[in-house]
Amino acid sequence: MRRVLLTRSILRSVRLTVSLSKILSSNQNLRKFSFNLCLNLNLNLFQKKSVCLSKKNIMQRFISIILLSSLFLGCFNLSAQKNISLEDIWLSPKFYPKRIQEIRSMNDGEHYCFLQSNKIIRYKYKTAKEVDVIYDAKKDDIQIDDYQFNASEKKILLATESEAIYRHSFSAYYYIYDIKEKTLIPLSKNGKQQLAEFSPCGKKIAFVRENNLFLYDIATNAEVQITTDGKQKHIINGTTDWVYEEEFALTKGFYWSPKGDKIAYYKMDESEVKEFCMMIYGNLYPEKYEYKYPKAGEDNSIVDIYIYDLQKNNHQKIDLGEETDIYIPRIAWTRSNDFLAIQRLNRLQNHLEILKVNVNDFSIQAIYNEKNKYYIDITDNLYFLENGNEFIISSEQDGYNHLYLYDINGNFVRQLTKGNWDVVEFSGYDEENQVFYYISTEDSPINHLLYSTNIKGEDKKLLSKEKGFHHADFSNNFQYYINSYSDINTPHIYRIYNAKGKEIHCLEDNKNLRDYIKEANFSSAEFFSFTTSEDVKLNGWMIKPPDFDSNKKYPVLMHVYGGPGSQTVKNSWGYFNYVWHQMLAQNGYIVVSVDNRGTGGRGEEFKKCTYLQLGKLETIDQIEAAKYLRNLSYVDKDRIGIWGWSYGGYMSTLCLTKGADYFSTAIAVAPVTNWRYYDNIYTERFMRTPQENADGYDNNSPILDVKKMKGKYLLIHGTADDNVHVQNAYDLVTALVNANKQFEMQFYPNKNHGIYGGYTRYHLYKRMTEFIYQNL
Q1: Rounded to an integer, what distance in angstroms lies between the CA atom of residue 501 and that of residue 485?
Q2: pLDDT digits (tens, 9 = 90+) for 264-287
């Protein structure tokens, strides 16, 4: 009978132990430890030689042991109880920071408004208090996607039901809201519109529909079509083609003159641009989707600029010269209604001119001319001063990206910023006080800090108080700015400052998220640097497990992007990948990222040394990073993996081929596998054409090096990727099969370069997570 009681007690003990270990830990390894510890403690009781204990004593000792082990494991597992899960990242809003979006400064410079809970709300800068609700969209049962005021701020143009075209472009239904009358009317009843915009006087609205430009007169409620030759896959008026949108970030292709009596607009003839075909699945017979996509070395759209005169109702083409194989990456009106500035860039993208066009007689004067032995980046840093006599532009002509002042005839006046650091953003110019604001890497390549200086390039002041990444939106009178700040371990904080950098009010500090990060037991990311065997200093960050023990050996997962001018090693909040990396760290992995040569923030030579040979030096540097990590006492040198997306997928694939002796595992999401397959504006900027640089294209294609692959490889792609075509993956698969290399792959039908929608991102990251756990 005693044996039966003991047996039953043991069984109850085991059952309780199983339940306890499950409750105490969500981590599989720790759960096993919990189970074994509880089981051993409990069974030891019954393995004593003196088992002649009463049932009461047995239960008392058993309960005591259970309570002690519970307390012990409860303390041991305090952090593990709130470990990050994939569901937390992708199926809940837990780690999504609050954001202040669509900020607009009002005309008076004393008020601002932003979109909040589908309302346009006005606030006062000085107090940060709500003044009034300008428009509440709930009463009209619409969802505001975007909005803009007319010049008098009496009307608002609202975009709703937006439908994506490519990465930036979209069509939408636009509505005009009269603030005083509280009336809402549609801009047009003839279909969705693109790029709708008030004229400077606020009496008319221009927009694009089906590749044509239209005008709407608010007073007469009349819609007029001002171009008629627009045709799908042939002529585009008022907007741009796929490659201009993707690589020049240019979708808006029309611009009102300052007085609103003229419109300058793009006309793109893409008739000779070759088409790419994708299959869209889901029906009995797949649908064929074709669009114009100029690959490296292939024909581009022919671009012309026209001036439409509203009063004369005529169109005048601007003579840009006989050479048509060029780019027009930007146009803008100067402060004068008589002059339009056109940026003209050659096909190799190493010669930039700014042409000043007199729109009365159409005479042209070149006011800026820059050549570069590599290439010239196009930015939005061109600014014409109100005096009409000068302009500011950024350039890398002294080896770093700085701001320069020229007169309107193109004569150099002075360099406004100078030093071995880059200006990364021109934030604005206070005309009244002759002070301009910019963000630079002067402190460090990993930090973006806000500075001010005067038009003479003197009296420079650092306005940012914290190290990290800053972005400033200034009021119209430059008396205030709303600053967005984050660092690698801190989500975004939004504050109002005055022009001298004094904080007025904190709008949003994401305290709830920061508290949750603490509860979720995040590790602090740490920055480090090392010098390669080629004497190149590289920067990186590292996330270690929360319970890191320097006496143990840990597997390492490296994250790479590595493309020209990019940075993954920056002191800014990294959103979802950062949280996922923290989850991997909690499960025993060290996560690392290193910026190779070719990345940004460190001057022209560091960025452009990869010219004509994309992938070569970048791969060498990532291999050097793996070598550096292998020599750390706490790294398992045989378990170093790497993953990346897009250019990063290209890099991770190269690392597992060219660096097969140093990387045991790689994941490539939507990778380029041969630069011949990618678009011409991006690729030729860094590689010239395949006709000129065949070896540069082929020598660094992972397709040609698959025989070297030894590690575990996961290839992922969306079949409807309009950016990096799935052709890249298919041809790599063919090469891997021909080389008799085993690998894993995951394709997502009808998904584009972002691979998202519904459960897609969760599914994608679950697939990658399981692959890492099984193979690294």
Answers
A1: 13
A2: 999 999 999 999 999 999 999 999
Parallel/antiparallel/unpaired status of strands 537-543 and 554-559 = unpaired
Judge contact between 594 and 556, C-beta under 8 A: no
Architecture of domain 104-205: 6 Propeller (2.120)
CA 254 – CA 360 distance, rounded (Å) = 18
Vertex 434: Cα angle to 428 and 438 (nearest 5): 30
CB of 653 closer than 8 Å to CB of 667: no
Residue-wise pLDDT tens digits, 9-30: 433 443 434 343 433 343 444 4
CA 562, 566, 571 angle in degrees (round to 5)? 105
Q: Compute the distance between CA of residue 205 and CA of residue 209 in angstroms, rounded to an integer.
A: 13
Tokens of 194: 């693109």
Question: What does the alpha-carbon distance between residue 463 and residue 439 come to, in Å, rounded to a whole number?
Answer: 10
Superfamily of domain 524-775: Alpha/Beta hydrolase fold, catalytic domain (3.40.50.1820)
Give the number of other Cβ atoms within 10 Å of residue 628's Cβ: 20
The pTM of the full predicted model, rounded to 2 decimals, is 0.88
Q: Give the separation between CA 274 and CA 233, rounded to whole angstroms.
A: 10
Catalytic residues: 646, 721, 753
What is the rounded distance in angstroms from the CA atom of residue 228 to the CA atom of residue 577? Answer: 46
Q: Which helix (H) or strand (E) holds 373?
A: none
- The backbone torsions φ and ψ at residue 518, rounded to the nearest 5 degrees and listed phi first, read -65, -45
